[in-house]
Specification:
This protein is mainly α. It has 4 helices and no strands.
């Protein structure tokens, strides 16, 4: 949703105006405020409503994280297995 807002605002600008619009968004202060705003929105949407969705977020996030951590090892294993089959 935020990207859509930025795109709609940039769409009407001239190319020379875009860096001056984007540059303030890349400051540390802006990023900290945006992150805090996101946490506040998450808290009001899920935590204060006694929703079970944060539990789902933790479970699925943990599964995705563990998959990504194991992925390099699995790729090495598959490459080694393919290399072994190429010799036969």
């Amino acid at each position: 949703m935020a990207m859509r807002k930025v795109y709609s605002e940039i769409k009407g600008m001239k190319v020379k105006e875009v860096p001056n619009y984007v540059k303030p968004m890349l400051s540390m202060d802006y990023l900290k405020k945006a992150f805090q705003r996101g946490l506040d929105n998450y808290h009001s949407k899920y935590i204060q409503t006694d929703s079970i969705e944060p539990l789902y977020h933790v479970c699925f996030g943990g599964m995705i994280f563990s998959y990504l951590v194991a992925l390099p090892n699995e790729r090495r294993h598959l490459a080694h297995k393919e290399h072994g089959n190429a010799n036969h």
